[in-house]
Backbone:
């Protein structure tokens, strides 16, 4: 039954893509029928996923699609059900959002049909990846997802930088896809057949298992945006329409994480400890560098894209801990790290989508992505401001919202290092945890900057000053996500108990105390070691705040509005405020080697005083000069060498064919 | 009974914190050859502020007005989970020490936002500096906390104290480093010299004061009070985690009396150390603070290293 | 549990940790006088360790080592270096280390590495010795790191002696000191080295107008 629901949702999504062909003639069709169908399919997918998760079923089906001797195997189990629910939920929310948001494109050179068709294909691709139960179906769905999202990235194709970003995305997606294909290839070679069941049976030597792991880590890591193979992500995610950015950052990255979990934890199975160490390092580096780069961005969506790299890094750190604990014989602790990774995936999907939708709302009403030109939006967009604040608190992992819970779980897992025999791991894991703590603290700074510059203070430009609150559907979708962020932060124990079936199934271990903890208390290891009760905390803070407010209310409130203190000089203006760049300046100054930055100050003086001062600051990603440009040069060099064979003379080409033919004949005989 | 005691301890934190500040100010005045104000001067200041009218900038938003309540609520909540007189604290199970760090961060988050809300250069400057300092201090703090948590194998504060008490007097190299590092972090987080000077309003040096420059009346009172409680919480954390002897382990009147006398003496002594160090050390310029904090981090890291290398082999 | 250990062993651990700390403070100090002061503290701690071992394990010859260490490394050498620095007017120079944070972080890495190296030795001796050997190995490596990362000749001398301190610490704690003859010899060597260094400092200073060893690159005869 859940499987048919899941298939129904995919059919619905594909139908929406089909209907979209007609939307150029009738725009209302797009807004009501296509988006409506998408929203309903999203809800169906969520229902299917949650159903499977709650009942812990394992449903499989074979569809006679694809190659004649190779039908598609589809399967819906707890792990794919969980990710299915995430995709469905965010699909529902973003299509709701798009009802108002897509009006932006009505009188633009960009057509509804392109948007509708490729959105449908993109979502269908993601859902199929989650259902796939053989390597062939997986790769077909994966490519469907990558290709259709390319068209969404270049949707606003008149802008040249968008086309460049799209090309980069396409290139990287295919390098990653190739790597994944090869990792499946190795497993198919050792097992018999393409189905995942056969791959599970394959007996891999540690060397080949490590090769599979390396290829999968590279391929999925590239899609997930791990440092240093992340460079496409901050280019591609921000240029798509905002609700698509939300889908890409919030959901597509999760599909990559699903793929990694499926291949490494489920298909390969026998984990080696150094894999965990590698993932731990790469994850921690991604988290730290991601947030440091995010902190320097002044484009709201680029900032959010870099912060996705940070969150993916956190998720991979948790997975690395899980592998370390499992491979050294502590499956219960490993399951805890695994659960933390899953929970952070869910949370990141919620708050990152919320923030992208919020950034889209700002752009919708003020046509502005540049933080330096915003300001004071809290007065213009009062509801969006509340939802965005909730998103910021969640992503900065502050209690009592959801981001904090997953981070807390990761810290708790990391603190169990005393269980390990290896002294070196006992040293390294706490240091990694300290890196995570630094990341968390920098994330707080980053989102204070984002919220403070965009929503608070005085408006810096005129069109921001005249911004108006966005429409109902955009607000409703943000409200849903904000409420979910809150609920998953306050009642984490319930969700985590439900999720506990996934590690039980994939890792075949019980998850210890989780089943025992009640809905109010979160006690990951045991009540003596650590406990956390967000609901009681919230109750406490409300009671204290309310008591304080009540006591102060007893007296006649006496509030006077006056001008801001201006040191007696008279008249502060919006230009005197701290800017986004100046906010991040101390950190840029302290950690300057991290960025590839160049700063020039050009001062024109007459005899006494400066006439004009020009300040230029460029901050670029270090991965370009360090990693990509050398590769690029090398590829060009090789291409030039190979280019020698291209003489342009037709008889030489005929000679090539002739010699090839001779060679083949020689080999055949 | 336990819950009543928890309530009592929280009340002690809330209403005792101004007294601690008064004591520090008094010692400081004495050390600088000034005529000291009475110890209860902070109470008078708070009372006066509560009675004053509130002046708010024209375009201050609702965020500016709820921030004092959130900051105060968060700090009081943190105070309620830190054992002061008795180790058996039922509220300690609600929030462990990582949540405690998180709640301090929550208060700071809102305070920084409120600083940016009015749209002056001061607010943004204070917010930017505060977030910079905090982001360097938090890893050091968590590293110290991890050392402690690994030693006691718990992050629950009252269980941790019980474990340390139970082990008796043991020379722990890791604790020496962690305690020193935590003290340095505490100085940075509570905005004392040499990181920040609570007594100045000079724009070159302000950090915390720059953020709250636009607050007045009862809002300012709440924020100041919260800062005082925060100072006391850090003091009690350092004292009761690393030198828990004297704290009551059972709820008899005798033990409670001894506990309150001991903690009072310890706090007075800690205040003396703080005052002496503040008198000897000069305020650092902003870009020296990272060095100070990375030193604190190094200390905490050495704590963790010496825990694993020298001590951890002996946990059975 | 740590409380199962005797008070002596706990004290040795504390001293080991403090010695490790002084090594890091050597790395962190960029002013020569601070560096020398930290080095003097290291000598004093070493002497204290020596005396503690002598007292608890009743090894009277170690008292002589303790006194020697205290007077040589705690007072005489730091004092001589101090005078040298004043005489050469180097007390206000701040050494520029290209990236102080990197140096400290690699120091932490070295500690982890030396623990990793010392772990396999565990079968050979008691656990306490193993841990202490890890620490003293780290001290040696940190001393070498100081040698590499600094360009002033004075700090190189300090680094060199910090290496010697690390070895001495391992010797005292794990094998209750080296034979008396060796120890006296080493002490004498250190003293002679000190005198030689002093002479060399003046020579270098006269010839190069600086104690920056990077300036010695000019001495190479390769074309310039």
Residues:
């Amino acid at each position: 039954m859940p499987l048919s629901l899941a298939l129904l949702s995919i059919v619905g999504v594909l139908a929406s893509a089909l209907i979209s062909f007609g939307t150029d003639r009738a725009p209302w069709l797009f807004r009501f029928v296509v988006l409506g169908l998408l929203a309903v399919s999203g809800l169906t997918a969520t229902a299917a996923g949650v159903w499977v998760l709650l009942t812990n079923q394992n449903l499989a089906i074979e569809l006679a699609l694809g190659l004649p001797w190779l039908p598609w195997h589809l399967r819906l189990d707890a792990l794919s059900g969980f990710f299915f629910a995430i995709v469905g939920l965010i699909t529902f929310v973003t299509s709701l959002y798009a009802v108002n948001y897509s009006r932006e494109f009505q009188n633009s050179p960009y057509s509804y049909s392109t948007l509708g068709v490729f959105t449908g294909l993109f979502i269908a691709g993601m859902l199929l990846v989650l259902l796939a139960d053989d390597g062939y179906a997986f790769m077909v769905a994966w490519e469907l997802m990558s290709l259709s999202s390319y068209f969404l990235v270049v949707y606003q194709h008149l802008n040249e930088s968008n086309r460049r970003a799209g090309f980069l995305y396409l290139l990287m997606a295919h390098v990653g896809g190739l790597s994944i294909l090869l990792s499946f290839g190795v497993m198919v070679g050792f097992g018999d057949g393409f189905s995942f069941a056969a791959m599970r049976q394959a007996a891999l030597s540690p060397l080949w298992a490590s090769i599979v792991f390396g290829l999968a880590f590279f391929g999925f890591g590239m899609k997930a945006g791990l440092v240093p193979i992340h460079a496409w992500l901050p280019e591609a995610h921000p240029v798509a329409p905002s609700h698509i950015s939300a889908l890409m950052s919030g959901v597509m990255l999760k599909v990559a994480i699903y793929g990694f979990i499926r291949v490494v934890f489920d298909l390969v199975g026998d984990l080696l400890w150094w894999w965990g160490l590698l993932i731990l390092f790469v994850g921690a580096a991604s988290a730290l560098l991601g947030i440091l780069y995010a902190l320097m961005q002044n484009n709201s969506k680029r900032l959010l894209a870099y912060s996705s790299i940070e969150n993916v890094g956190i998720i991979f750190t948790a997975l690395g801990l899980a592998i370390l604990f499992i491979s050294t014989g502590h499956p219960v602790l490993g399951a805890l790290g695994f659960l933390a990774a899953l929970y952070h995936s869910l949370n990141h999907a919620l708050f990152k989508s919320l923030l992208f939708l919020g950034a889209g709302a700002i752009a919708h009403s003020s046509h502005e992505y540049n933080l330096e030109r915003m300001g004071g939006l809290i007065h213009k967009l009062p509801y969006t401001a509340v939802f965005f604040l909730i998103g910021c608190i969640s992503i900065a992992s502050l209690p009592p919202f959801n981001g904090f819970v997953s981070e807390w779980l990761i810290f708790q897992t990391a603190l169990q290092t005393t269980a390990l025999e290896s002294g070196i791991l006992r040293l390294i894991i706490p240091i990694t945890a300290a890196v995570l703590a630094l990341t968390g603290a920098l994330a707080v700074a980053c989102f204070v900057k984002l919220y403070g510059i965009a929503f608070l203070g005085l408006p810096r430009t005129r069109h921001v000053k005249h911004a108006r609150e966005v429409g109902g559907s955009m607000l409703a979708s943000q409200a849903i996500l904000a409420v979910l962020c809150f609920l998953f932060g306050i009642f984490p124990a319930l969700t985590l108990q439900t999720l506990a079936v996934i590690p039980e199934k994939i890792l075949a271990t019980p998850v210890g105390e989780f089943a025992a903890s009640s809905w109010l208390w979160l006690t990951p290891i045991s009540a003596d070691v650590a406990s956390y009760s967000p609901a009681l905390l919230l109750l406490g803070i409300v009671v204290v705040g309310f008591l304080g407010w009540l006591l102060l209310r007893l007296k006649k409130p006496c509030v006077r509005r006056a001008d801001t203190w201006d040191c007696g000089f008279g008249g502060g203006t919006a230009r005197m405020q701290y800017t986004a760049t100046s906010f991040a300046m101390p950190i840029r100054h302290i950690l300057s080697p991290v960025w590839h930055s160049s700063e020039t100050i050009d001062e024109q003086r007459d005899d006494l005083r400066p006439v004009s001062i020009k300040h230029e600051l460029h901050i670029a990603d270090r991965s370009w000069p360090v990693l990509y440009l050398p590769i690029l040069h090398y590829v060009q060099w090789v291409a030039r060498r190979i280019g020698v064979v291209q003489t342009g003379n037709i008889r030489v080409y005929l000679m090539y064919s002739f010699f090839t033919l001779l060679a083949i004949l020689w080999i055949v005989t | 009974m336990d819950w009543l005691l928890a309530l009592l301890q929280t009340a002690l934190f809330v209403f005792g914190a101004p007294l601690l500040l008064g004591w520090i100010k008094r010692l400081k005045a004495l050390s600088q050859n000034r005529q000291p104000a009475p110890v209860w001067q902070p109470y008078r200041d708070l009372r006066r502020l509560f009675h004053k009218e509130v002046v708010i900038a024209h375009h201050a938003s609702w965020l500016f007005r709820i921030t004092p309540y959130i900051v105060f609520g968060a700090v009081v909540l943190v105070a309620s989970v830190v054992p002061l007189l008795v180790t058996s604290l039922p509220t300690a199970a609600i929030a462990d020490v990582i949540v405690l760090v998180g709640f301090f961060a929550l208060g700071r988050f809102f305070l920084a936002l409120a600083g940016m809300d009015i749209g002056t250069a001061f607010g943004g400057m204070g917010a930017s500096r505060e977030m910079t300092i905090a982001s360097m201090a938090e890893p050091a703090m968590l590293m110290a906390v991890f050392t402690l948590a690994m030693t006691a194998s718990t992050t629950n504060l009252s269980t941790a104290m019980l474990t340390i008490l139970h082990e008796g007097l043991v020379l722990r190299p890791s604790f020496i480093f962690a305690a020193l590092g935590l003290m340095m972090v505490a100085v940075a987080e509570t905005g004392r010299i040499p990181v920040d000077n609570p007594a100045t309003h000079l724009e070159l040096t302000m950090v915390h004061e720059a953020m709250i420059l636009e607050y007045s009346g009862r809002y300012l009172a709440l924020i100041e009070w919260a800062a005082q409680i925060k100072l006391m919480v850090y003091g009690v954390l350092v004292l009761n985690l690393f030198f828990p002897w004297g704290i009551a382990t059972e709820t008899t009147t005798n033990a409670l009396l001894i506990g309150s006398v001991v903690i009072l003496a310890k706090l007075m002594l800690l205040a003396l150390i703080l005052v002496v160090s503040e008198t000897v050390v000069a305020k650092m310029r902003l870009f020296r603070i990272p060095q100070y904090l990375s030193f604190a981090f190094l200390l905490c890291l050495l704590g963790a290293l010496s825990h694993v290398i020298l001590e951890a082999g002996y946990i059975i | 549990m740590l409380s199962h250990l005797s008070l002596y062993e706990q004290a040795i651990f504390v001293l080991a940790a403090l010695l490790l700390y002084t090594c890091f403070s050597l790395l962190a100090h960029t002013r020569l006088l601070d560096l020398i002061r930290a080095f003097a503290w290291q000598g004093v701690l070493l002497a204290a360790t020596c005396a503690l071992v002598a007292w608890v394990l009743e090894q009277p010859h170690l008292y002589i080592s303790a006194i020697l260490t205290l007077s040589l490394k705690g007072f005489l050498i730091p004092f001589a270096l101090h005078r040298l620095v004043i005489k050469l007017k180097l007390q206000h120079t701040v050494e520029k280390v290209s990236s102080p944070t990197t140096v400290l972080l690699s120091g932490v890495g070295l500690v982890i590495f030396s623990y990793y190296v010392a772990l396999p030795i565990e079968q050979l001796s008691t656990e306490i010795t193993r841990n202490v050997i890890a620490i003293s190995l780290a001290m040696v490596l940190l001393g070498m790191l100081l040698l590499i990362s600094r360009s002033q000749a004075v700090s190189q001398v300090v680094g060199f002696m910090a290496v010697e301190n690390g070895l001495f610490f391992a010797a005292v704690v794990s094998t209750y000191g080296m034979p008396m003859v060796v120890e006296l010899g080493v002490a004498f060597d250190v003293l002679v080295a000190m005198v030689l260094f002093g002479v060399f400092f003046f020579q270098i200073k006269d010839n190069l107008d600086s104690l920056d060893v990077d300036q010695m690159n000019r001495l190479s005869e390769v074309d310039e």
